[in-house]
Structure formats: C-alpha cells, structure tokens
Write a structure and sequence with these properties.
Largest sheet: 10 strands, mixed
Number of helices: 10
Number of domains: 2
Distance between the termini: 45 Å
Radius of gyration: 21 Å
Order of helices and strands: HHHHEEEHHHEEEEEEEEEEEEEEEEEHHH
C-alpha cells in the first residue's frame, strides 16, 4: 500500500509539470488540495470504521501502471456486446482513459454530451462552480480521484430540455502486459426541469489485474428528473472503487440503480444530499456474488430539509466463498421534519462459507418523521423449492427461479426495456440457468 501511495505522489508531480499554464487554474488548485488530503489520510485500512469489513491490501499490492504509454486500438466487434442492444443512444467511450471519438456519439445541440476534458477547456465557468463540490472531502479515494481528474464524461442537460435518447458511458481497459490503474472522472448536471437516462459501465479486456478508482459528481436542479444505472459485471481480474455523490434541489427526482455481478472486488461509496424540500430519491441494488468475490456497498442519504422522500432497497445473493457488505446510513437533521425515509437490505446465502456483514442505520434528530429500516439474512425456502420440484422443475432451475424472484424487486425502477432485458440476461447467466422470461 505504501509503495503505491509513494508512486501516486511522485506521479502527481509529473502530472503537474505536464499542465504547463494550466497549473494555476482554480480546478488545479482543487486538485492540489485533494492530493494533500490523500497524502494526509493515505489509503483506508480496516482500522477505519467505514472499512472495518473490507481490506484493500489484496488489490493494492500490484505494481500498477498509472498512465499507459501506448493506446491499444479496439474494434467495435470486440466491445459490441457491452453496449445496450437495439437502442439508439448517445455514447461516450473511453479506451485506457483516452476518449475514443470514432466509437462515440456526442452532441452540443440542445444539451452537452461530451468529455470532462472538453468541459475543462470550453466551459471553465461550469468546472469552477461544480468540480469538487459534491464528493465528501473525508473520503480518501475520492480525493485521490480529484487529484488526478482529467478525463471522463461531462453531461449537461439544459433548462427544460430532455435528452431525446439514453446516454451510455463506457470505460474499457485493454491489455498492456501489466497491471493498470485508471481514475475516470464524471460530472453530470441537470438544470431546472431537465430529464435524462444514463447508464455507466467499466469493462476490462485484459487478463491482468486492473484497478479502477472512479468518481462521479451529479447535480440535479429543481424539478429535474434523472435515472442513472451502474452495470458492474467485469471479469475476475478487475477491481472497482466507485465514488458517486448526488446533490438534489427542490422537487427533483433521482433514481440510481447499482447492479453488481462481476469483478473480483467492488466498493461503492454512494452519497445523496437532499438540499431543498420535496426531493425524491430512489436507491436500488442487486448483488450476486460467487467464488471469492467481495462486494461492498456504503450508502448515505442525507436529509437536510423537510418534506423529502427516500427509498432504498438492496438485494444480495452470495454463493461459494463470496463476501458481501452493506452499510447504509439515513441521516435526518433537526429541521428535516416530515421526512419519509425507508431502507431495506435482504440477503440470501447459498453456502455455509458465503457471508455478509450488514449494518442499516437511521440517525434521526427530528420528531415528526416516518422512517424505517431493516435487514434479513437467510437461505432459500425449502418448502418453496420442494413445491417447484414436485411440479417437474429440476432442482437447479427451481433454485434459480426462486433467486430470480427474490432479486427482481431491485429492477423495479428500470424503465428502459433494453436495459431491463440486458440485466435479466446477466442475472440468469450469473445464476447459471436459462430464464427466457421476465417476472
């Protein structure tokens, strides 16, 4: 861990020297402050309360290449299966941290779908106002990302506009002959009464260990509506740390779904900050882990003002020696009266070696609220399994049917038919069964 920290610190000096005249911009001053925070905090360890169930040591021991020296070309045929099929969409595609214009489809007509680097150059006023304003400064890994932020997605849906088709953001890592670490940065802005649907995916095309430390800041203004879906289904050599923070203004609505099926290691830090009254927030998650996967979800919903609503539902299925973590906190501040906040985490363990640590939390300082939370950890219902088998369904298919039905609630807010079909196929494949229907 210390070797990688030292390497990152020296790489930041090189990064600064390559900026030329941009080293004194307000954005880089934020980068420099973030790097100082990371140097002070270092990588989190199990001694930190928020990381007590999750160790970074296994994924930080590699000698990661931080900035690949060469670009590997990728044919569309290699990556076609990772896009949403049969749907017209805007696309932002990045190969080894570099924007691929020929694989992408962007626009600046009624709204902006372009790159983070373009935003820094063309919309410096937006960068100065929003960059670094949503991610908590106490999170070391998001500070690390801020320090090196230079490429990713920039999406701005302007006032009273709706994106006329979905937006896909895809990050690919290719084979470089050694381990690679990337740090994509996204900034999403929905102005007043705007609307958009966005999907995000990170995919390694390499058989070497890959570490992605991603960060996304989302700002949703009054009356705006956002559906954001994260597909986490990478290969067994890939590790993902995802830091996402959302700030909502009055009467806005945000739905964020996290679907975690692949990867060797996943840590999701998800924060919602409800800054004005009558916000609505939906957090959905489906996790299916097997082998020795570790999948860790940490969420915060921060109710600062009255009359807001949040609903959080995370479903987990763990097989073999998989380990799951759910740590969800709902904070209700003293002035946040009339808050409605609900949180539920349900888990199924399929073997005696699979495990889950779950800690749903409510921290309430107001007295006129409707809040609840809960968690369950159990196994499949033997009677229900027996019933299906008596109807001529083989044991493996019967088990998969029950697990599919258990997880299906996590798709309740997926309105895009093509995305729902793709997620259904992923769930079926992960459960090792052919389910050619939808509940």
């Amino acid at each position: 861990m210390e070797a990688l920290k030292d390497k990152l610190e020296s790489s930041f000096i090189v990064f600064e020297n390559e900026l030329n005249g941009h080293a004194q911009t307000p954005v880089h001053q934020k980068r420099r402050a973030a790097m100082q925070r990371f140097e002070d905090m270092g990588f989190p360890t199990k001694r930190d309360e928020e990381w007590k169930y999750t160790s970074l040591k296994p994924i930080l021991k590699h000698d990661y290449r931080l900035f690949p020296n060469e670009e590997n070309s990728v044919d569309f045929s290699q990556i076609k299966k990772y896009f949403l099929n049969d749907v017209d969409a805007y696309k932002l595609v990045f190969i080894d941290g570099v924007y691929s214009s020929w694989l992408s489809e962007t626009t600046h007509e009624r709204f902006d779908v372009c790159t983070f680097s373009s935003m820094l150059n063309k919309f410096s006023d937006v960068a100065n106002e929003y960059f670094g304003q949503a991610l908590p400064e106490y999170e070391a890994l998001s500070s690390l990302n801020t320090a090196f932020a230079r490429e990713g997605a920039f999406i701005r849906i302007k006032k009273s506009q709706a994106a006329d088709k979905p937006i896909q953001v895809l990050f690919f890592t290719t084979e470089h002959g050694q381990e690679v670490m990337t740090q994509p940065r996204n900034l999403i802005l929905l102005e007043e009464n705007a609307e958009a649907t966005i999907t995000e995916r990170h995919q390694s095309l390499s058989d070497k260990p890959v570490l992605t430390n991603s960060a996304t800041e989302i700002f949703v203004e009054r009356h705006a509506r956002l559906c954001y879906h994260k597909i986490q289904n990478d290969n067994g050599q890939a590790s993902l740390i995802d830091n996402t923070s959302i700030r909502q203004k009055g009467e806005s609505s945000v739905t964020l779904g996290t679907y975690s099926f692949g990867n060797r290691f996943i840590r999701n830090n998800l924060n919602f900050f409800l800054d004005e009254e009558h916000c609505e927030s939906h957090l959905d998650g489906i996790t299916i882990g097997d082998d020795q996967q570790l999948i860790d979800h940490h969420t915060l919903v921060d109710h600062k003002v009255p009359h807001c609503y949040s609903n959080e539902l995370y479903k987990g299925i763990y097989d073999d020696k998989a380990h799951g973590v759910f740590n969800g906190k709902v904070m209700v501040h003293p002035h946040a009266q009339k808050t409605n906040a609900f949180q539920q985490n349900n888990n199924v363990l399929l073997t005696d070696k699979a495990s889950v640590d779950t800690k749903p939390q409510l921290e309430i300082y107001a007295d006129d609220v409707a809040c609840s939370h809960g968690c369950t950890i159990g196994q499949l219902d033997d009677q229900a399994l027996f019933y299906l088998m008596t109807r001529g369904i083989a044991r493996r298919e019967a088990q998969a049917l029950l697990l599919y039905a258990f997880a299906n609630d996590g798709l309740r807010n997926v309105k895009l038919p093509e995305l729902r079909k793709k997620l259904n196929r992923m769930i079926a494949k992960k459960l090792n069964v052919n389910l050619d229907f939808e509940l």
